[in-house]
Amino acid sequence: MTTVAPPASAGPTPPTPPTGRRGRRPGRRRRPRSGAGRDVAGLGALRGAAFVLPALGTVGVFLLFPALWTIYIGITDYRLTGEQARHPEVVGAANYTRALDDPLFGNSLWITLLFVLGSAVIGQNVLGFALAWLLRRAAGWLRRTVEALVLLAWILPSTVVAYLWITVLDRGDGTLNALAGTGGTAWLLTYPVASLVVFNTWRGTAFSMLLYSSALAAVPPSQLETARMVGASGWQTVRDVVFPHIRGHVLTNTLLITLWTANDFTPFLLTAGGPDHRSEVLPVFVYRTALEGAGDLGYASAISLLLLLANLVVALLYVRLLRARGVDGGADGGVDGGADGGAGRSAGRGVDGGAGRSAGRGVAT
Amino acid sequence: MVRRVGFYVLISAITAFFALPMLWLATAPFDDNPRIGLHWPRDWSAANVRATLGHPYALGSLANSLVLCAVTAALTCAMAALAGYALSRVRLPGRDAVLYLLLLLSSVVTGTAAMVPIFILMTQLRLIDSQLGTALVLTGGLLPAAIFILKDFVDAVPRSYEESARVFGASPGQVLRHVVLPVTRPGLATILVWAFVNAWGNFLIPYLLLRRIEVQPAAVVMKTLQDEGGSANLTVIPVFSLLYSIPVVVLYLLVSHRYGFRFHGGIKS
To answer: Which of the ends of chain B has fewer CB neighbours closer than 10 A, N or C?
Structure first.
């Protein structure tokens, strides 16, 4: 952002030609003007801190504190009911050694892995890219319609889409059985993980599609033209021309949707852990351990901490990659899906902070 | 030619894949004889709508959702606006560290990862079944990203507006009220809508913290209706789903149309 020195007739300030971005006015005894954080409204550090306090306070109490507290609860044997509910005792690493031996935990990890690999790493990525690639030169109406449908699948509330898929997969009268003629197959009972994978692919493709749409728009058209002229097939074009440009985006996108999918609680709405723990992804496992049956809060806390640490690793990796790509990692990590990734959007409007941002940043989200 | 046909076949297949589950929402609410599977209604009727409106908890839960999400959105927007502005304009000690921490918090501490300590915390604070408590938890989760978005937004606003106002003798309060607020309105509106939409669709936190059906928002009551089973299931659920979904779609279209960019819900749980 370049600032403009006030015009010569503007009152008390002696007119000075601006020195680059920061005009130094010799006559003024103000706090040093040095780039970002210039207190133009004259708030002062005290009021500035007061402004930040409510937000940081809320985040501290309801986000940061629970995350740290989980470390402590994880080393106790706190339970929902019974003696340990009134007098929890510190049991050290007992919860963690229990996790190592617990077959249900191992089962949950394995299912979560399948779920993430199938629906996010492969499913949403491939389908999202395929849609972005197919639609990039499609007629306007076709592109808008397809994108609208895909987006609708993402913005509908989770309880609604879960129920919609229950109606599709129902054994007796479900839409899938009616269409495919496989009457009587209880998909959610017989193939719970596969059903979840298909469901989540359907649910989340929109994000990848939009991201790859922007990424593809940034591939130099001349290179695509050249490829077409030398007779490269679609697949060859993607592999040799497109992929080198979007490699970074593939990685960051994969990290992000992996993080989201691993923490997704929606499978609970579809199978609630599946027939006999057969589709118990980690979020559902934590929930059932903590709040169903005996209510083993200490153990569930320990598992939650492991999940937090895994999230942390992925998030750090993600921020690292963004910074390495020379993009301002600041808002991207937090904003991710919050603001649109359309490359055309960096034209100064909306939430991406406007004209100063590079086009690459618009693509990154 | 083959390529063309292949393209259309593929696109049609994908479109059908996405459209199919949602079609049920268009027909079942008005079907006189609603069934689980998708089928063209033989008789159209508004009986389901009447049944839903008459259901003891359906409309109440939608009202609960409205209150919960409005409070969450307002709190998030207000606190994030103040913090975003200060972090953008004022040089506070430890600013970069705070920003980095917020960045990490927003993606690392998800509802799933924090559900156990939050449940225990709210139980001990006696804030179970408290709509305000739930709103605060939701706000806490949404704030980091909101702060980022608004800080970015304020960064993009030229400082010359505020500078000019100061030069002409405005106090900081006046600068904020008369210069900053109007200019940042699009950003504030975006955050309001974004926070509202996120809270509207959130299932886990209300499910965890709101136990009595009278205070539960639509997200939770939807699941309760399913679990209840019985014939009320198919008369009420389709209409209820539609009513529950429409605000989100409308808001999305509104923001998309008004501000010329597509915006989709951010951190979900």
So the answer is: N
Residues of chain A in contact with residue B106, where contact means CB-CB under 8 angstroms, are 333-334
Burial of B5 (0-12, 13-18, 19+ CB in 10 A): exposed
The B residues from 147 to 176 touching A (CB cutoff 8 Å) are: 147-149, 151-153, 155-156, 158-160, 162-168, 171-172, 175-176
On whether any CB of chain A is under 8 Å from the CB of B125, the answer is no
Q: How far away is chain B from the Cα of A220, in angstroms, using its nearest Cα?
A: 23
ipTM: 0.89
Three-state SS string over A93-113 comes to: CHHHHHHHHCHHHHHHHHHHH
Three-class SS of residue B31? strand
A168–B20: do the CB atoms touch at under 8 Å?
yes
Closest chain A C-alpha to B175 CA, distance in angstroms: 6
Containing A158, the helix (H) or strand (E) segment is: helix A158-169
A159·B104 Cβ contact <8 A: no
How many Cα atoms sit within 13 Å of A272 on the Cβ side? 8
Does residue B241 surpass a pLDDT of 80? yes
Q: Note whether B268 contacts A158, CB cutoff 8 Å.
A: yes
Whole-angstrom distance, CA of residue B109 vs CA of residue A263: 10
| Whole-number average pLDDT of chain A | 80
Q: How far is CA B109 from CA A168, A307, A359, B128, in A?
A: 33, 9, 29, 21
- pLDDT attached to residue B267: 27
Q: Is the pLDDT of residue B20 over 50?
A: yes
* Beta partners for residue B44, in sequence order: B31
Site from A79, A159, A235, A258 to mutate, B interface, most B CB atoms within 10 angstroms: A159
pLDDT at B228: 79
Contact B166 A66 (CB under 8 A): no
Sign of torsion, CA A305 A308 A314 A319? negative
- In 3D space, the residue among A319, A341, A339, A315 whose CA is nearest the CA of residue A328 turns out to be A319
- Across the interface, of A56, A134, A286, the residue whose CB is closest to B11 is A134
Identify the weakest region by mean pLDDT among A117-126, A137-146, B7-16, B224-233.
B224-233
**Inter-chain Cβ pairs, chain A and chain B, closer than 8 A:** 403
Chain B CB within 8 Å of residue A198 CB: no
pLDDT level of residue B18 (50, 70, 90 thresholds): very high
List, as one string, the DSSP characters of A64-94. IHHHHHHHHHTTB---SSSHHHHS--B-TTH
